[in-house]
Amino acid sequence: MIERIDTSERMSKIVKHNGVAYLCGQVGSGESATEQTLDCLARIDALLEKAGSSRSQILQAIIWLSDMKYFKEMNAVWDSWVPEGHAPARACGEAKLARPELKVEIIITAAY
To answer: What is the CATH number assigned to the segment(s) 18-111?
Structure first.
């Protein structure tokens, strides 16, 4: 059975299937990559909770940066957010994001 949570015409914020929760890509607000990453991860925390999951159950993270110059800044926030011993499989690349002011987008897949 597939469960869709917070579904709109375009997408669902969470799709759950077979013990896996797929979260839609999250962006954050703020001027710096640090601020955007902090806000983005807070939004992910809320979605994980809504999905019945947690940071320690993240299986994979895909991170898009508008410019790889933000890699170190984003990682400083990420490294303090991920629980020790529970680092997920992760990819990080550079991409043109939906709006010019965005610096970070994170997509999460987690067990629940």
So the answer is: 3.30.1330.40
Q: Which helix (H) or strand (E) holds 45?
A: helix 33-50
- Residue 84 has what DSSP assignment? T
The domain limits of the chain are 18-111
Rounded distance between C-alpha atoms, residue 44 and residue 38, angstroms: 10
Q: Residue 64 — pLDDT band, cuts 50, 70, 90?
A: very high
Mean pLDDT over the full length of the chain: 98
- pLDDT tens column, 3-31: 999 999 999 999 999 999 999 999 999 99
pTM: 0.96
Query: How many CA atoms within 13 Å lie on the side-chain side of 75?
Result: 9
Nearest-CA neighbor of 82 among 36, 33, 30, 41?
41
- Give me 62's structure tokens: 């895909």
Neighbour-count burial for 33-51, b at 16+ CB within 10 Å, e otherwise: bbbbbbbbbebbeebbeeb
Residue 45 corresponds to which tokens in the numbers above? 């925390």
